[in-house]
Amino acid sequence: MLLLTFEGIDGSGKSTQARLLDERLREEGYETLLVREPGGTAFSERVRSLLLDPSLNVQPFAELLLFSAARAQLVAERIRPALEAGRIVICDRFYDSTTAYQGAGRGVAEPAWLQSFHRRVTGDLEPDRTYLVEVDLDTAKRRRDAEDAANDRMEAAGPAFYERVGRAYADLAEAHPERIRRLDGDRSIDALRATIWEDVRVLLDAEDGTAISGAGSS
Ligand code: ADP
Ligand code: TYD
Question: Which residues make Cβ contacts (< 8 Å) with residue 89, sequence separation at least 6?
């Protein structure tokens, strides 16, 4: 039915919005699947542990392949079957993360090469909509620190890395304005939730004229 993805740097607030959207859709009677990347299958969760383990040294190209391996498995094992069963799939990160983190952050490959690589990895599956939650690096770091979890391997990267990632996300949004919606992550959780819901309603109405008619707008 619909594939909706959330993107942003670590601590931007995108997982919060993915969860709130999933809850709202369920309340409205939709069947959903909420997954995170990397993860979502037994194999992909194992790959996730490898990728985030701060004690491991991982070469950038190996990192690109592992994030993509986790994604290929998730798409085949869960996302495609859910879409075929008519569910709305919400994915906390998808291939834009790889373009931003491995492509720009690590400097592994050019966006054009990655674009065709992603198509091979996902079997041409593209999100119907991507919500990009944008915050400055300090805000993101403050939010991460407040969570009190130890830094994972990716989070050990310095501010210059996150700067490149944030810029790559902005470039992606400019290149795909029809798919990617930029959101000011400094706004309150509730304000963001309402903006996203408004947009999802439009998508649902386009998908199915009978969708949630009469439901409130926020
Ligand atoms: P991400 O998935 O982008 O790493 P989370 O959604 O897990 O981020 O949020 C990180 C932290 O920031 C959480 O403690 C969350 O409650 C908080 N947070 C999320 N969105 C906002 C917001 N709009 N304003 C203030 N705090 C937020
Ligand atoms: P996670 O704890 O899920 O972070 P967040 O809550 O911010 O999403 O860890 C996922 C980490 O992996 C995060 O630092 C982003 C990174 N990542 C990539 O570098 N490339 C990718 O393709 C994906 C999916 C994630």
Answer: 1, 2, 3, 4, 32, 33, 35, 79, 82, 83
